[in-house]
Each structure stands twice: as C-alpha cells, then as structure tokens.
C-alpha cells in the first residue's frame, strides 16, 4: 500500500466529528485544570486510538464503496493491519504518561473495536448489538473515560458520584447522539453490507427508518440537553449553532421520503459535518467561558 492509501484509511479528518464527546466531558465541573493533559488526551484518542480502530475495520471490511469518512477507499493489504497494531501500541505508550487507568481504557476500547470488525466475531453483522455497543463505547464510554482521566477519578469514586446528575446526563446524551447518527453513516452502504452478509442496524431499519430513528434520538438528546443546562443561555446557544445541521437533516429527510437514493455518501457526510462542527464550536465556547 502507498503512504497516501494508508493515510486515507486512517480517516483522520472524521475524528473531528467525534471530538464533541471529549470536549463535552471536559466542560463538566471542575473544568480543565491542566491544559497540557487535556491536549495530550485529545491527541491520543483522535490521532491514535480512533485511526487504529478505523484501519483495523478497513482491513477486515475491504470496502470497495463509500464508507464512513472515505468516499473512495483504496484497496487494502496486510500492511493496514500492522499500521493498526502500531497505532494502538503508540496510543498505549503515550497513555502511560497520563495514568494506568487510561492504558486500561484504551485496551478495553481496542478489544471491543476488534470484536466489532474481526471476521471471527464480527459484532458489526448483529444490527442491534452493534448499534447499542458502538453508541455505548464511542459515546458514553469515551465521555466517562475522558472525565475520569482529566480528573483522576477512580472507578470507586465514580460509583460514589452516582448521584451526580450532570455526569450521567452527559453520558446519556453522548450515547444518544451516536444512536442517532451511527445508522445514518451506514445508510449508503446497504448494497455492500448485504454482499458481505452484514445486517447492519440501518439495513434493518430501512432508509426511512434510519432517518426516523435519527429524529427520535436527537429529540431525546435535546430534551436531556435542556435538563442539563436547565434552559439557560448555553442551551439556547447550542440550539442556535445546531440550526444549520437540523435544517439540513429536515431537508434531507424530505428528499429521502421522496427518493431513498437521496441518502448517499455526500448527503450523510454533510449532515455529519454540520452537526459535528456545530457541537465542536459550542463546546469550545463553553471551555473558553469556564476556563
């Protein structure tokens, strides 16, 4: 494989749209007291951990059509497997400089993503299990992981904090957002997934059902955000920043209702970009305000 092909399979730019989960966790009280650690944690997760999972997935899927964050995947060979292993090893080494708990988190996340993609287990072909587990790990798990690492919170301390409504609302919100958007990233892969025998959650729901699910989960997320911010100005600011994404989703839903083929790669990615950047800008503003 060429260096350019490997770079494309890292799907590094797509990590930006997963960034809101970590940023959200960092906005929780008591805020960031070590910006160096915050940047290091974000780099490890988004430059090493996520690309390691992406390349592992690409190696086992060997997609020929558009995939999440990559419109025209180059052919893959065994090189990509070793790139994935190397990135994971680097992430573990880098995590040692934070704490042991971060190393454990990365091992757990990496093990799940391997079970998700590997042909021997392949959770991906189990629609409901993959949907719930991806949303749990990329959403709630990463949210709690970021919070615990930033504040050196142990599992016991997390249990003691079980009455912290904000922490658990944030965890639920992070999972709900992935529950909404994860099936949308599969909506243009139905033919290729069917050819491999993978009944993804989007194939199970159908094209229209995928968009109904997105609206229901985003509505639930919005209600949780309203409770989280108690209807104060941060909630209104978030709504304002998400208007472009919501309007685009509404237009796309209308088009899909008329013609399911409208749910193609570029349409899904535009929705991801608009919602992802809206959330990133919002949480960066909140970090600056509370920092």
Automatic annotation (TrEMBL):
Its main location: membrane. InterPro entries: UbiA_prenyltransferase. It is a multi-pass membrane protein. Pfam families: UbiA. It comes from the Bacteria. Keywords: Membrane, Transmembrane, Transmembrane helix, Ubiquinone. This is Ubiquinone biosynthesis protein UbiA.
């Amino acid at each position: 494989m060429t260096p350019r092909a490997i770079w494309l399979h890292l799907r590094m730019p797509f990590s930006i749209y997963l960034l809101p989960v970590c940023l959200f966790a960092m906005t929780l009280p008591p805020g960031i007291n070590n910006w160096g650690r915050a940047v290091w944690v974000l780099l490890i997760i988004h430059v090493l951990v996520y690309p390691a999972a992406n390349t592992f997935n690409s190696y086992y899927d060997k997609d020929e059509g558009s995939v999440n964050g990559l419109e025209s995947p180059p052919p893959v060979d065994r090189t990509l497997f070793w790139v994935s292993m190397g990135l994971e090893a680097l992430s573990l080494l880098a995590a040692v400089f934070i704490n042991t708990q971060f190393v454990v988190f990365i091992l757990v996340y990496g093990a799940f993503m391997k079970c998700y993609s590997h042909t021997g287990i392949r959770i991906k072909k189990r629609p409901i299990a993959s949907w719930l587990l991806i949303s749990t790990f990329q959403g709630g798990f990463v949210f709690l992981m970021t919070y615990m690492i930033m504040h050196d919170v142990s599992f016991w301390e997390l249990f003691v904090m079980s009455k912290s409504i904000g922490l658990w609302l944030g965890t639920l919100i992070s999972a709900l957002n992935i529950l909404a958007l994860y099936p949308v990233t599969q909506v243009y892969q139905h033919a290729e997934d069917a050819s491999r025998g993978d009944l993804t959650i989007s194939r199970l729901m159908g094209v229209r059902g995928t968009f109904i699910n997105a609206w229901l989960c985003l509505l639930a997320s919005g209600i949780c955000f309203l409770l989280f911010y108690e209807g104060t100005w941060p909630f209104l600011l978030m709504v304002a920043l998400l208007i472009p994404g919501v309007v685009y989703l509404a237009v796309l839903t209308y088009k899909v209702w008329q013609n399911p083929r409208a749910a193609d790669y570029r349409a899904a990615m535009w929705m991801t970009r608009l919602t992802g950047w809206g959330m990133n800008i919002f949480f960066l503003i909140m970090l600056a305000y509370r920092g």
